[in-house]
Amino acid sequence: MSEEPEKNVKKPAVPPHVMKIRYYGVRGSIPTPLLPQHIEKKFQYLITKILTSKNFKGLTLKEIFKQIPFYLKSTYGGNSPCILVQVKGNILIFDAGSGIRELGLDLMKQEFGQGKGKAKIFFTHTHWDHIQGLPFFTPIFIPGNQFEFYSCFPDLEERLKEQHDSRYFPINMDIMQADRIFFSLKKNESKDFEGFTTKTMKLNHPGDSYAYRIEANGKTFIHSTDVEFNDKNYDQMFETIEFFKNADILTFDTQYTFKESVSKVDWGHSSIQIGIDIANHSKVKKVVLFHYDPTYSDQKIDEIVKIGISYKNTIYPDSEIEIIPSYEGLELEI
Ligand SMILES: [Zn+2]
Ligand SMILES: [Zn+2]
User: Measured between alpha carbons, how far is 41 from 258 in angstroms, rounded to an integer?
Assistant: First the structure.
C-alpha cells in the first residue's frame, strides 16, 4: 500500500536563522470566552461609527477597518496560556492551557497529521490554566508522533495523569498513542539542545513556577509567567534582572493593574509596571503583556497597554523598550 503523498504535508516555513513565536493562549487563571453582550456591543459601536463618521466617507471597508482600534474590531482572546516557538527545525510549546487545542489543529495540517511530528512541551508549572488543554491536543492521540515533556517538576507525568483521572476526565492518558517521554530540568540551570539552549529560573508563585530563557542564533526569547514580586522576595528582583538581561522578547505576567497587585498580595501575579521596571534594568527590547485577568475586557486590556506605555515614557523617558499586548494569533520573529 502506498503511503500518503508527502506533497500534502504543509511544512512550517521558518528559516534557520529565525526564531518564530506565535501566541495561542494569553488569558490567565481560566479560559474566558467573549460573551454575547460583548460581541453585540462591539457591533453596535462599529456600525454606528461607520454610519456616522465623516472621516470614513469614500473609504473602502478595508481602509475603514484599519482605522478601528484592535479592541473594538477583534479580541485579545480567551484561551489560557500556550505559546509556540519554532527554531532551527524544532517545535517548542510553552504550557498546555486551552490554547493548545487550537495549536493542535494547526499542527495536524503538518506532519503531525500523519504521525510524523516531533515537539517538545515545556511547562512553567501545573496550575490548571497551564495544563487543562492537554486532553484536547489532537496530535498527542496520533500514533507515530513524538512528544518530549520538560519541567522542573520530577513528578510532572504523575500530575498530568491525575488530570485524566476518571473523576475529572473521561479518558486516561494511556489513550494518547503518540510517544511521550518525560524529562526533568534542573532548577536554575542551562541545558543545550540541538539548535537552542534553555535556562530556567524559579519564580515566586504558589506551588512554584519557572521562567524559561530560550537562546538561539544570538537571539533570546523569555517566557516568564505566574510570578509575584513583593517586599518578601525583593532580592529576587536582582536575580530576575540578570535572567532577563538583553532579551529580545520578554513575555511577562501582567495579570493585574498596579492597584490590584497591591490588594492581591500572595496571589502570585504581577503588573505591567513591575514588568517595565525589571525589563528596563535588564535592557529588554520588547515586553509582551500576558496572562490577562479573566475579568478584563478587551477595552480594559487596551487601557492597560496605554498605561504601560505612559508609565515607561514618564519613568524611563530614554528607554527604547517596546510594549505590546499579546493576543491569540500574534506572531513575532527575532
Ligand atoms: Zn496561570
Ligand atoms: Zn499559576
Answer: 28
